[in-house]
């Protein structure tokens, strides 16, 4: 009787997790996002394949955590407090150059960076070396491309810090030493954090869980405060007050250094060079935040990582999409350079530059809309199953995608309202309106395409699953009708497969959209601000309000493009 | 063999859902929040108790939805688009009195209201009457107190519309008829929607799922746009430009009616009266939004509602908490009235009013902090199990709680930064700083207390579960060691019970905090704006920026208090 019971329990387990070839099993919750996610945790018993040591650890751990489960709540509260204090300080120092000096803000940041490094040190030296600290790894977390991106952006951020140090050293005789200390500390932090995330991004920490949760939210909030600072500095640098053509930062810069001159001749060059690298530093902070967040979600998580499949990147599958995409990027970069040069000239040249920029953007966005529509049609024709297994990395991907797209949505809708209310006369106005409408359409379509794509069963896994299901079909003949019919419908779907042309078209669409997003990232990230070159919205909303909308919305819009590139790459691999 | 297998399957099912006495079983996802929640869906087979018709419906429906599951994505996109367009129009008309007139905004709202009513009509007449439309009800959704609140606030909102109609009819001879049409349409909408939510709030819709999802997000976004409009109007009304003592709305009002006089004498009275009722209209929209959102989450959800337990409200359990709380509310209301009267007078009286207001708030917040700390200590002493069953209503509760608290957090931190940076000299400054610091502490503690409380096993259920577990203990003797030991630890925890004094203290704390939140809701909801009466932040951040921070943060802060009252009431019932 006992063997029969165990046999049946195993079968039940298999059935429960039938839809997911990669069983991800959660022992106890202990994770919360907006806390909205707290309730959707599966309480499945351990799969019989797992070694007995895991089972016992799980039991001890479940009991232990039931009584000390406040860690995630405490760490969430710490995160909110650091973030909002950081937000107040950063915006205070941005809008008020007298009362909160940049030095005070930098001291706050230095304290945060040092605390974070202390925790990282503690984690790598003490926690992670213990035997029972990390029994499981989440194979979805920290994929190679994310870690490679982190390394690349980390290196470029390191360059910014070098430039900053070189520049501010020239002012040391008459300015605060904090301005040199901050980039030094940040450079060390970049090394420490990149090493930490490179090694530990996949860890599901089982030891010192409460401390680890708090440490991870500290790291997360430090990265987000650094991101806020960088975004604010970049926005101030890029915001030109109309009719003056002098950016706010230049004015502030002039005001603060009016009596303090650089002791070497390279100051301005270093400063200017560092601004060109800012977009990479912004992306570095976001990459690090995303990886830290996934680690936080994975604390105490029990993942069964025995069934691993790998999806390989085979660029030769596609041709038309990448070629058109690369062409688009090249043409986009050329027009962008023309725009950057001409926009600073007199009125006629300026309008010409805007005209080219608008037309180029409309062409890009229209082509992207068209290809996304084709992709969505293919999805309707294609009857692949959806994957709903628990996966914090994908949840975060989707959440960030939708959240970040709101930034561009807001800018576009405010633009549309202003244009329609004032009556779009003149070709520049009409083009601007058309661009904004197309952008809303493109964002909606692309969000649909990516989210739908991320939740599809990977092609290769489907074939394996079909074989697997076939083998088990006879053995499980006694099971209830409902389960059997669901299984066979699944089997039918999989074994029929998908004609190769559908896969190919989807891959082409992904590749094209990916490159489209690259060019839409390059333009605003490197300083295209047609929003301020064009007077309608500024007149309609007043400069302060419009600058606030753009400076809050655009960083999210830029991040959205970058994030879409990553997500589309994953969809490309899946389909 | 077949009977053994079925028996085991049943046992497995029971074990899987052992922790939750009220099995909530999800057939297929089809729900998304920030989409972050999408991946946490349980794919458990149907419980054996369910009638066979349910099983077959589920099967058909699962297959059907696998192929047409884009409805939630489409409805989400519709929601985002309506919301952001609404946001642009509302803020455009608030900041720009020339280009977007209130009439244009009202026409947009009328269209939204009419479309929503059309869908509600379609749903009540066609969808909900079909046999297979609503097979399940979510007993967590739309509890009595929420529906009663909806009815009450709906009635008060109806009064506002009556007042508005009476007031604007007086201007009909020289002003747009849209101003009368809007409250008329809104009054009808209030009836239709309140009826709809009263009857259908618990529905888990199984028919026309895609259309229903879109209809529900339409209703959701309409309510949120109405909420935004009300909040903006209320904020403009309450924002006094410093040194003028004339509110912006009065100026705008005077400007727009400079040549148009009311044809009857009661215009100003009706207008003034309607402003006192605004807080209730704001709450009505939020209540309706919350209920609609839960309905949206429940579309296509399969809930096993056979095991129902009821928790009754027994106010005689507690004494000290409510008495102190009521005392606090009474004293608070008295000082609030003194504040409202004195704040409009000359400098000395004004400072006196501020002093009393600050001291009163500090006393309230300190007492709340103290009682929350006591509550948290009791939680540590009390070893009740946590509940992690899927429950959209609770997920929403927690998400809204944390989200709404950010509003007050932001105001407090910005205040702290301004006070510290300028050096808090003088008793008013020191009190303001102290209040802000205490507020941050109180928010953190209260969030912790409520979230922890909402996730505790209800007391009565624990006792029942203990008996139940006991009965099954021998029968399931053959089960694996892990499962058994987990079960017995659960049994031990429950059967030991909790000494009554702990329960009683928790209930006292809940009751006191509930009333504390009521008075903290009353003050800002009925127009206390010490943020604008006190010059430090205005000087520090400039008036525009500070007004933006307060006018965005405070509506969330007010909602937070109201929502805390509801959540604390639930915690009171559970503990």
Task: Annotate the secondary structure layout.
The structure is a homodimer.
Chain A: H1 2-16, H2 52-67, H3 71-95, H4 102-125, E1 134-137, H5 144-169, H6 178-200, E2 203-205, H7 209-238, H8 248-256, H9 267-298, H10 320-342, H11 347-381, H12 392-422, H13 427-454, H14 459-475, H15 481-496, H16 500-525, H17 530-533, H18 535-541, H19 543-574
Antiparallel strand pairs in A: 1-2
Protein name (chains A, B): Otopetrin 2
InterPro entries (chains A, B): Otopetrin
Keywords (chains A, B): Cell membrane, Hydrogen ion transport, Ion channel, Ion transport, Membrane, Transmembrane, Transmembrane helix, Transport
In short:
Two copies of one chain form a homodimer. Chain A has helices at residues 2-16, 52-67, 71-95, 102-125, 144-169, 178-200, 209-238, 248-256, 267-298, 320-342, 347-381, 392-422, 427-454, 459-475, 481-496, 500-525, 530-533, 535-541, 543-574; strands at 134-137, 203-205. Chain A is mainly alpha-helical.
Overview of the molecule:
2 copies of one chain form a homodimer. By secondary structure, chain A is mainly alpha-helical. Chain A has 2 domains: 71-241 and 260-298, no CATH class; 315-574, no CATH class. Chain A has 19 helices and 2 strands. The first copy, chain A, has helices at residues 2-16, 52-67, 71-95, 102-125, 144-169, 178-200, 209-238, 248-256, 267-298, 320-342, 347-381, 392-422, 427-454, 459-475, 481-496, 500-525, 530-533, 535-541, 543-574, and strands spanning 134-137, 203-205. Chain A has a two-stranded antiparallel sheet. The radius of gyration of chain A is 26 Å and the shape is globular. The model of chain A is unreliable at 1-68 and 473-498 (pLDDT under 50). At the A-B interface, helix 1, helix 2, helix 3, helix 12 and helix 13 of A face helix 1, helix 2, helix 3, helix 12 and helix 13 of B.
């Amino acid at each position: 009787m006992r063997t029969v019971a165990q046999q049946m329990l195993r079968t039940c387990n298999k059935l429960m997790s039938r839809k997911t070839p990669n069983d991800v099993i959660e022992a106890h919750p202990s994770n919360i996002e907006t806390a909205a996610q707290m309730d959707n945790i599966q309480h499945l018993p351990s799969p019989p394949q797992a070694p007995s040591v895991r089972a016992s650890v799980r039991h001890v751990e479940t009991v232990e955590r039931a009584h000390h489960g406040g860690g995630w709540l405490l760490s969430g509260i710490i995160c909110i407090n650091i973030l909002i204090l950081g937000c107040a300080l950063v915006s205070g120092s941005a809008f008020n150059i007298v009362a909160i000096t940049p030095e005070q803000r930098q001291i706050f940041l230095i304290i945060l960076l040092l605390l974070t490094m202390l925790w990282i040190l503690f984690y790598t030296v003490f926690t992670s070396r213990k035997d029972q600290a990390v029994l499981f790894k989440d194979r979805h977390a920290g994929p190679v491309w994310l870690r490679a991106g982190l390394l690349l952006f980390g290196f470029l951020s390191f360059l910014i810090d070098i430039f900053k140090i070189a520049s501010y050293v020239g002012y040391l005789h008459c300015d605060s030493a904090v301005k040199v200390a901050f980039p030094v500390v940040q450079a060390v932090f970049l090394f420490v954090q990149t090493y930490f995330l490179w090694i530990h991004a996949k860890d599901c920490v089982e030891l010192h869980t409460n401390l680890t949760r708090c440490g991870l939210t500290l790291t997360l909030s430090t990265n987000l405060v650094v991101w806020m600072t960088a975004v604010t500095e970049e926005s101030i640098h890029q915001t030109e007050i109309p009719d003056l053509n002098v950016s706010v930062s230049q004015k502030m810069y002039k005001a603060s250094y009016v009596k303090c001159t650089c002791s070497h001749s390279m100051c301005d060059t270093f400063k200017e060079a560092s601004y060109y690298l800012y977009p990479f530093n912004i992306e570095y902070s976001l990459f690090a935040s995303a990886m830290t967040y996934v680690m936080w979600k994975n604390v105490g998580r029990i993942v069964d990582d025995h069934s691993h499949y790998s999806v390989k990147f085979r660029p030769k599958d596609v041709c038309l999409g990448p070629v058109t995409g690369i062409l688009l990027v090249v043409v986009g970069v050329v027009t962008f350079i023309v725009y950057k040069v001409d926009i600073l000239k007199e009125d006629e040249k300026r309008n010409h530059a805007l005209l080219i920029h608008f037309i180029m953007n409309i062409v890009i966005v229209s082509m992207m809309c068209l290809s996304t529509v084709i992709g969505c049609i293919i999805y309707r024709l294609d009857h692949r199953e959806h994957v709903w297994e628990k996966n914090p990395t994908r949840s975060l991907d989707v959440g960030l995608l939708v959240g970040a797209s709101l930034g561009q949505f807001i800018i576009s809708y405010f633009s549309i309202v202003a244009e329609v209310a004032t009556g779009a006369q003149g070709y520049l106005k009409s083009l601007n309106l058309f661009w904004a409408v197309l952008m809303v359409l493109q964002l909606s379509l692309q969000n649909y395409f990516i989210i739908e794509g991320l939740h599809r069963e990977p092609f290769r896994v489907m074939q394996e699953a079909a074989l697997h299901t076939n083998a088990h079909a006879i053995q499980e003949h006694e099971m209830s009708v409902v389960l059997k019919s669901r299984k066979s419908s699944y089997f039918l779907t999989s074994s029929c497969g998908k004609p190769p042309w559908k896969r190919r078209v989807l891959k082409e669409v992904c590749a094209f959209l990916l490159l489209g997003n690259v060019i839409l990232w390059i333009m605003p990230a490197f300083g295209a601000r047609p929003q301020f070159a064009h007077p309608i919205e500024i007149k309609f909303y007043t400069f302060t309000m419009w600058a606030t909308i753009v400076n809050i919305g655009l960083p999210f819009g830029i991040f959205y493009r970058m994030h879409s590139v990553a997500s589309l790459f994953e969809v490309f691999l899946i389909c």
